[in-house]
Here is the input.
Amino acid sequence: MRNLFLLLFIFLLSSAAAAAQENTAPTQAKIWHRALVWIYEDNNKTLGKNEQKPVPQVSNESLANFEKDLAAASKANKDGYNFYKLVYQPVQEKLAKSKPVSDEALMNAIVAETSKKPGRNVKHLRFALETATKSEAVSETPEEYRETTAMQPEPEPENVTAPTVPSNTEKPVKDENKLPMYLSILALLLAAFALWRASQKNTSRAAVVRSENDMLVAGKSASESPNVKALKRQIQTMRNEYHQLKSENENWRADMQQAIQNLQAAAFINPLAKENYADFHDQSTSQNLGGTGHQHTMENYSETPAEAQPYEVETDHLFAEEPQPQSHKKYTRVPEDGLLKDREMHTDSRETWSFIEVTIPDAQSNTATFRINPYVNHALAINNSLDRLENAFEFARSANKATQLINDADGELMRTAQGWQITKRARIHLA
Here is the structure.
């Protein structure tokens, strides 16, 4: 529908332009012919009868024929006052960029061009050109005007009156000249109506699409959002519980190991128990070395009185799945008060925020060392926890962008009743 209105608009505009050209061309031919006659009459009135030059014979029915005849007359030296070169060609060059040209614009251009000659009364020329646009009946100059322009005035006959233009001949000309304007206005109205209809359709269509999208989004959010949020909450809860259980398991293992060591220390206080424990230890060593001395050691152990035998604690089954090394490495977060708590230590070297790696020589040791954990993302600590890192590490801040923390010297820890106290900060640098 919109394309149809656009085609109709273009057709009306082209029709209006064609009609304007068809209606203007004959009238402008008469205007040019009247200007030619007037210029020759105006120039001849100051010359003698033998010196006056005749008006070139040109057509006044068609602008193309007028131009053709005038050009031929100029070429044949029959254009005595050079009207073709001095008036017609300059005016046409000025109006060439604004075709089609209205009658009013053409008359203004002719008057402006002919007014360059000093002493020429262009008001009379203007009047002559305006009468040429009325009709063919008034194409000649009125009798009153001839009296003012004649070189030798003649007495006007008393019984002769100047021809008048019938009143009914002016209206058709005006209506004919306004027809293109009416067609243009109609075309503009139709185009405006077409644009309005198209905008209304686009607005309604966009409203329908928007409402459908809103309904779809509302339906999806109502059906999917609660389930997704609940599932995310469950996953986060399970993750937190896993980390908590893992931490509790590590703490439980550490407590069990400490309790076993304390129990073993209390069981071998007397010398006899120590000797029997040493024999038992030699027996285990002989088995590991190939079995030599096994029978003798067992006999000695069996002869020991029951009351003197050492108090044995079976602990192998507690650590069968994960044998503990002699030196323990644990990981924990950077403390705020310089105290590392045992319950916060664990063995997961990849835990995101555990930037401290603690090395404990053995379970009975009261001193330990620590350094930066090399297995975590150091950029996370550099971007978010530099201030907190200063609680455990000594380092110089750099204006350059860094992504790694390099260990220069280990820090020192001392066991206390509350945990491990930092006695010396570790040294690192940013890279």
